[in-house]
Amino acid sequence: MSGRVTAHVQAFNDTVGSGAWGEFSERFTDDATLAFEGVPVGPFSGRSAISAAYVAQPPTDTMTVTDVKTDGARDTVRFRWSAGGTGTMCLTWDGDLVEQLVVSFDD
Asked: Which residue range is the domain that position 60 belongs to?
């Protein structure tokens, strides 16, 4: 598994417990975007908007990665929520920071 994916998911899971979403948002570039497919949330543009979104509606489930496909600066990550359900994250990276995150959930 990609080290950057491991670090991102670990930080996410740690933040579910700590609630430090402002700190977690430092993992994104200043002009990052966050979008959710199939749910009426977002999109969010910019680190401060992403941080505000996480603070306003914080995730309550941790995730476990089940598969990662890497293509250069892009990782496609299949995951499972701790409370049940699965989904996909597509992360585009600028160095160690997330430039774009698109999340979709399976039915």
From this structure: 3-105
